[in-house]
Write a structure and sequence with these properties.
Number of helices: 1
Helix content: under 10%
Largest sheet: 7 strands, antiparallel
Mean pLDDT: 79
Strand order of the largest sheet: 1-2-3-4-5-6-7
Shape: globular
Distance between the termini: 15 Å
Number of strands: 7
Order of helices and strands: HEEEEEEE
Length: about 110
Amino acid sequence: MRILNAPHNAFGRKGSAPALVAIGIIEADEADSTTIYTNYRRPDDGTRWRNACRVVRDRVVWASIRDDGSVGRWRDDPLDSVVTFTLDETAVTVVEHYDDGSATRESFPR
């Protein structure tokens, strides 16, 4: 799959959240009643990243998992990009909205 027009390939950099999903490298490790824990290995350098993700209505909010297992800062600050999704009968569409008004969008067949 294409990697959108993303200049980088890590969460927190423009164009990255849909891109990581699009190339199929995110794996779900476990979940509890509010949080899904994921991991991925970054293709460009092989670094393993772990995250905690929550869905709040149509928004996906995430935080990094530190090496000691604690959860880092949730990406819900007004200056953070906003990741949303929509579902229809045929696809899931993920959009990452940036504070400059731009966005990246990717749809995935269901």
